[in-house]
Amino acid sequence: MKNPLFWALLIGMTILLMEQGLPVRSQGDSQFDNKVMDNITVRQGETVLLTCAQGDVVTHTAWLNRSSILYAGEDKWSVDPRVSLVTFNQEEFTIKIENVDMTDEGQYVCAVQTSRRPRTTSVHILVQVPPKIINLSKDIVVNEGANVTLMCQASGKPEPSISWKLVSSSGDLASDDEYLEIPSISRQRAGTYECTAVNDIDTDVQTVDITVNYAPTVSEGRDVGVTLGQIGVLECEADAVPEADFEWYKDDRRIFNGLDGMEIINTGSLSKLTFFNVSDGDYGNYTCVAINKLGSSNTSFLMYVQDGSGGAVGVRSHTCVLFVVFLPFLLRF
After folding, report:
1. CB–CB of 269/237 below 8 Å?
2. Are the beta carbons of 199 and 43 closer than 8 angstroms?
3. What's the distance, Cα to Cα, between the start and end of the chain in Å?
4. pLDDT digits (tens, 9 = 90+) for 58-97
């Protein structure tokens, strides 16, 4: 049996080799019998088992990670609660590391002292990490025509690939890069943008919302015929971001809600001007103006007299006047 001094020397030489990054392999008449096992690939969060063959002639054995001893025989040297002893007998020496993380990646060596000479077995643990988006642009509000750049960065091993797409689109706007450039953005490019990070392990997806502000545009006004004494409604619809405020005018006079038997109700993009008992003074030309911080737009309406049969009284009366005027002229012939 080797004395404790020799055992300490064995551990020290093994650590020295590992710190220098030298492969632990047999070379000529080396004082060590060295074996390199295949790499062990494990996913982050999983458990890995490290097994080292023993033998009847083994006097001392230890598992090491880089510059620290994890186990020397049954004695635990590591203070990491994730590291524990699984098997220790004449056939094998196995330890396990639970909940593996990136910090556990690296070379591990099982150092064995025998009655003949020392030997080492080394293995390299490779830790695979699922992608995680770590830096993403915030939701933004811009004016139409502005240049927009979205950023999405992710960590993971293997290194994840990044892709962008506009969720509400058919897929014509996309990018396979950390950055998505949108020059002179239009209102059609507003919406939810999805960043996807992918590697061999998993996928991570996060989204960014872009709001595009633009000045109002109003639909063309539709003239309305209303019978005297009945209810009449003029409707004005505006497309705008942010939503437009509405103003109503008759000729050049602004109409205020609740005055002269009229009511203005605004609901989102729609404004309704309601007359509950149409009088002669209500007929005429009206203008709807939609306004937000980027501009305004307007459209005009005509509310005209309609008789009980649905005819336009104003138009028919004009025809009668023309006939009376020309009647004396026709009687000369």
Report:
1. yes
2. no
3. 148
4. 788 999 997 789 999 999 999 999 999 999 998 899 999 9
